Amino acid sequence: VLFNEPRFISATPDRTIIISDVGQNAIICIDHNGKVVFRYKPDGQNGLKKPQGVCVDKLGNLFVADFGNNRVQLLASDGLFQRNVLGIESALEKPVAIRVSGSNRMIIVQSDGMVKVFSYS
């Protein structure tokens, strides 16, 4: 089975599709034919816990709202972990939806309904 509990979806500049899957604690990238390009499911400190919103910037970088870990992860376009962009130290709590803008702004909606805007680089 490709998906267990898919939640959010986003498209990349190169026309692949990114899906967060809560049931697998994974991010899955597929091409337009449904073939898996990569599956991001790390263990350890970078492991996802109920990943929710996903979005892609104009360079193809992926942003993942890591709901259960109260953080946002940045992945390269090939699905490799780059860094945690935001976390608890940013007063981020249970991020659900995420969007980035061309002006290096990140808009996040938390499960409590709060909308937060951050700058990132």
Question: How would you explain this protein's 3D organization?
Answer:
The structure is a single chain. This protein is mostly beta strands. Helix content is 0%, strand content 50%. The protein is built from no helices and 11 strands. The protein has strands at residues 6-11, 17-21, 26-30, 36-40, 51-56, 62-66, 71-75, 81-86, 95-100, 105-110, 115-119. Strand 10 (105-110) and strand 11 (115-119) form a beta hairpin. The termini are far apart. The mean pLDDT is 94.
Fill in the keyword field for this structure.
mainly beta; Neuraminidase; four-stranded antiparallel sheet; 11 strands; 50% strand
Describe the protein's topology.
Elements: E1 6-11, E2 17-21, E3 26-30, E4 36-40, E5 51-56, E6 62-66, E7 71-75, E8 81-86, E9 95-100, E10 105-110, E11 115-119
Brief characterization of the structure:
This protein is 0% helix and 50% strand.
Strand content: over 45%
Compute the gyration radius: what is it? 13 Å
Structural class: mainly beta
* CATH third-level topology: Neuraminidase
Query: Helices and strands, in N-to-C order?
Result: EEEEEEEEEEE
